[in-house]
């Protein structure tokens, strides 16, 4: 139970960070080439586009990841509590 809880606690956060930094790498490559990043289409072009945060573009992914992390925290706490009894 403790291992499952720790996996649920850590993996969603690491996956979201990986997605975020992968996108940031693409954005910085686009800016170095002199382009502008289109957040909705995830492409580099020559027109300026407004910033749209990841939470607004992929709410199910972000909220689901955070809910899984919270569930993992509760399972981890329950696993630690059961072990002491």
From TrEMBL:
The chain crosses the membrane at residues 5-22, 60-81. Keywords: Membrane, Transmembrane, Transmembrane helix. This is Transmembrane protein. It comes from Nitrincola lacisaponensis.
